[in-house]
Design a protein that fits this description.
With about 90 residues, the protein is of the alpha+beta class. The protein is built from two helices and four strands; from the N terminus they run βαββαβ. Strands 2-3-1-4 form a four-stranded antiparallel beta sheet, with helices on one face.
Length: about 90
């Protein structure tokens, strides 16, 4: 199976969605390379970057589920790096 490297940029404006977001990220944790969260207290938002290496359909599924959370925005940028997943 082929995997792609991508980065997800997430902005959380609704603190009530944080628990659901973390649950989704945990569900897909085997694909997460790294994660960085920045609380922007002056604006009462959180900015999160998540780097993943996953099959295209898994990246799309996670991005779609995150995008449906109330008060959460997401954009995903894909690299051109595609590789075969090793067992």
């Amino acid at each position: 199976m082929e995997t792609r490297v991508a980065v997800m940029s997430i902005i959380v404006e609704n603190p009530d969605s944080v628990e659901d977001l973390n649950a989704l990220l945990h569900t897909f944790s085997k694909y997460v390379i790294g994660r960085m969260g920045i609380p922007y207290r002056e604006k009462n938002i959180n900015i999160i970057s998540v780097a993943v290496d996953a099959p295209q359909n898994e990246i799309s599924a996670l991005s779609g589920k995150i995008g449906k959370l109330k008060g959460v925005s997401i954009k995903t940028a894909y690299s051109g790096v595609i590789s075969s997943e090793q067992s």
